[in-house]
Specification:
This protein is 43% helix and 30% strand. The chain starts with a strand and ends with a strand. It is of the alpha+beta class. It is built from four helices and five strands; from the N terminus they run βαααββαββ. A hairpin with a 2-residue loop joins strand 4 (108-116) and strand 5 (119-127). It has one domain (3-127): 4'-phosphopantetheinyl transferase domain (Ribosomal Protein L22, Chain A).
């Protein structure tokens, strides 16, 4: 296998918290798929909702960077961030993101995300 793309992104949790405060469910519906929203809304009182969403947002941005080329037309909803049964992040692409992945010669997307205080980071590697 060979490397087809790599991307990373850093997101301030406070920025996402402000977006959620201003746009709430409209922001979530525009940028996340229904399964991602359900996951984000679930959990222990979701006091950490902004951090949870920021981590997934960072992975989406990192994935778009890893895809390379002109990704401006790819909606954030076309990059879905899920959890595997073991809890690891998993990226599933749809629509234009899937088309871009195929054009880049990619078949497998590896993702990692982490949180530290008021920051979230996403890291993505694409292999063929």
């Amino acid at each position: 296998m060979s490397l087809r793309g790599i991307g990373t992104d850093l997101v301030a949790v406070g920025r996402v918290e402000a977006l959620l405060g201003r746009h709430g469910s409209r922001f979530l519906a525009r940028c996340f798929r229904p399964g991602e929203i359900a996951t984000s809304a679930a959990g222990p009182a979701r006091a950490d909702l902004a951090a949870h969403v920021a981590g997934r947002w960072a992975v989406k941005e990192a994935c778009l960077k890893a895809l390379g080329g002109d990704v401006r037309g790819i909606p954030y909803r076309d990059v879905e961030v899920r959890r595997t049964a073991g809890g690891a992040p998993e990226v599933v692409v749809h629509g234009r993101a899937a088309t871009a992945l195929a054009a880049a010669g990619g078949r497998r997307i590896w993702a990692s995300l982490s949180h530290e205080r008021d920051l979230a980071i996403g890291f993505v590697v694409i292999e063929d």
